Amino acid sequence: MPDSGRCEVLGRVPWRERVANARDIGVVFGQRTQLWWDLPVIESFELLRDVYRVPQADYARMRDELVPLLDLHPLLDVPVRQLSLGQRMRCDLVAALLHAPTLLYLDEPTIGLDAVSKLAVRDFILRLNRERGVTIILTTHDMDDIEMLCSRVMVINQGRILADGTLEGLRARVTRERWLIVDLLQPVEEVSDPDATVIRKDGRRVCLRFDPELISPAELIHRVTTKYATRDLFVQNPPIEEIIARLYEDMRC
Amino acid sequence: MLKAQRAIFSAAFRTNLQYRVAALAGIGTQLFWGFIRVMIFEAFYRSTSTPQPISYPQVVTYVWLSQATLLLLPMRANPEIQAMIRSGTVAYELLRPVDLYALWYSRSLASRTAPVLLRAAPIFLVAGLFLGLQAPPSLASAAAWALSIVAAMLLSAAFTTLVTISLLWTVSGEGMSHLLIALSSILSGIIVPLPFFPDWTQAILNFLPFRGLMDIPFRLYVGYVSPSEVFSLVAHQLAWTLVLVFLGRWLLGRATRRLVVQGG
After folding, report:
1. Whether pTM exceeds 0.95
2. Are the beta carbons of A32 and B91 separated by less than 8 Å?
3. For A96, B1, B16, B157, which has the most beta carbons within 10 A of its beta carbon?
4. How far apart are CA A192 and CA A199, in angstroms?
5. Any domain includes B264
């Protein structure tokens, strides 16, 4: 429960104007469904059309546009209880959009989904935002979701905002470090460099952490490859999990 | 506004019609129980010599009517909404651009009436042909019964909605259900028909809402009260419906201000 503060959605205070607000927003909770458990999917869609009082023509246009995007056609006559989680989530996404909301809240939309559904859902969310201009607010613990979808990231811990900005900004704020990952030709007893630290070593793959302000990636690569026989290498940013975890840690101190 | 409620009603109605095997089993059970209750009353009437407030054929009909419309008793909260409150899916109900009370009332009305409509006809048929259920004494009595059974449905839905709303505090609802089963089955006349209750209780029974669920329609059907009284009796049912609706609305207004959906 909030202790104080103000909340406005599209210029309205949602708890004061619940009904008007409900008409303009769409919501999908990844763990729950808003579809009628015992009825075929299409009947839930028609029910939502009536509940949101969407004119038949608008409803039909929206349905015919959304159904092929998520490949729902074969599912429309199946009772919801017989759908797999991925199928259900795709149906739930369409259900939340039938009344053409300008704002869509997605709470863990990819949780528990199989790989194919996950990609389909992500692609759909991106297109929704780019082609229809729907604003999407996403809560997720899936770091790939964040990498692929979010232009603005807010990290919240125990009701406090720890960070708010772009993903790059967040990275820069937490750490400048890069990772150099090297695949060696021969197993080596010990890998070392004065300006980098080894953070992982399994078999012939070694991961080195370095600060590009102290040593340029080109120079480090040159030094490492002359010292050790190298088969392959690449430089990457620390994964987003690492960044977020470090952010939470910093805040605790 | 009404279009949304109608859609919800019809969807909930169709959902309830899906449980046909349950209905079939229910019909069997209700016929069996009715049979036992009729035998008890037969034994009672044979062994008594004092005149009773209601005739034997009327009691038998009263019993069969109560068996046919048994599920109209608000014995528990609306199961769909109860499941939603337990799982947190109730958040979706608050996202609908419609009045929440009206939404839940529509759901409750559907879940109370659909199973009754599914079961009543076969029980009427079997009991009417073989087990002593009589037709109403006049067309006027039949019409009065029809009117009051509709009012009973509205009253029962208001009861159900109120109990459902109370789940927003208690979550499990077991306690409320037990209390309501006991109260409504005794005070509505389905254990012992209300005319048998002692004189001093009659004023209380007449005042309470529970007789509107069963006893009022049955008395009108069997001709125990004249069809001309239908308007004051239906007024009693509708007045209590209104009271329960207002109470439910007030409670729901308080509940939604403190509702927290956990585990998201």
Report:
1. no
2. yes
3. B157
4. 11
5. no
